[in-house]
Amino acid sequence: MSDDGGVGFISRDLPIVAQSAGWRRVRLAALIGYAAVIVYIVATHGVPTGRLSLSVLIVAGLLISRLGEGWRRLGQVIVDWLPFTLVLLAYDRTRGIADALGTPLHEADAVHWEHWLCDGIPTVWLQQHLYNPSHVYWYDALTTLVYTSHFIATPVLAAILWLRDRTLWLRYITRVIVLSVAGLVTYTLLPEAPPWLAAQDHYIKYPIHRLSARGWEFVHLGNVKSLLAHAQDAGSNAVAAMPSLHTAFATMIALFVGSRLTSRWRYLLALYPLAMGFSLVYLGEHYVIDVLGGVVYAVGTYAAVSYWERRRDARKAAMVAAASAARREPDDLAQAAAS
């Protein structure tokens, strides 16, 4: 039939439709394989918490979601996620930079600040009343789960936003990167030992145990405990206590998500940074003053970036208005001359 007939139109577009359907099948098969790999990793090695491994898994999933959409869309995944990944990897290098600069480690003064703020060391009190070396309780598992969520929540939320609304993702990831850089600079210039390390070095006279991986025993995932403990010992910066980026990122998530909700239930999001702060203090990972520092860093970063975005948007709006006025001016003059 001719191009004006329905059959001719369908036959001409059929290869494009078939190609699209073919790529959908490829993406579906790849996603099934991807999910199988995730299940295998969790079953054999536990929940991944390494920054590099998490970045690779997330970027791989995003690349799969863009299969069949051209090299430019695939390349956009790499370009968008590279700065975020580099900042995460830089976290583990701040200890070496601080050592190279000869920056002194803050231990005794951190203990002094905590005593001044809390009239004691809350971690000591919590572990004396809640920790039992011969038994793992449900709250041990809960605090470990909250602690571990730090490694997953921020990148997963970023991935969801990237898939749904890249403009919203850009606003979120800008805050995450600024917050991360602020924390990394502080860790380099002000390395501070956490409570468990200060106790080991005898700056705290009572024993403090590092319990952040212990809760996995409650759900019979001892292999996850071993892997998390190994990652903490081998890869993380042990003297990155001030500010608590665990608390800072939990606060940032609550602020960012809550500011875009209208329901009164959005205030429940505040429970996340509160639970994170309590978990960190009980588990021996941070002082209360570190937790408060994390909140201050997150709120300050959110406010500063929001202010910058408002100024930028206002300048763009003014430039658009000026350009529109400039385009209308010749027409107005011509109309005035004609009248």
Structure description:
The protein has 339 residues and is mostly helical. It has two domains: 1-91; 105-338, no CATH class. Helices cover 74% and strands 0% of the residues. The chain contains 13 helices and no strands. α2 packs parallel to α7 (138-164) and α11 (245-258) packs antiparallel against α12. It is globular.
Keywords:
339 residues; mainly alpha; 2 domains; 74% helix; disordered N terminus
Short description:
It contains 13 helices and no strands. With 339 residues, the chain is mostly helical.
Summarize the amount of helix as a percent range: over 70%
N-to-C terminal Cα separation, in Å? 57 Å
Number of domains: 2
- Tell me about the largest β-sheet: none
Order of helices and strands: HHHHHHHHHHHHH
Indicate the overall shape: globular
How large a portion of the residues is in β-strands, by DSSP E?
under 5%
Radius of gyration computed on alpha carbons: 26 Å
Based on helices, strands and strand pairing, what is the structural class? mainly alpha
Please give the number of β-strands: 0
Q: Number of DSSP helices?
A: 13
Kindly state the mean pLDDT as a whole number?
A: 81
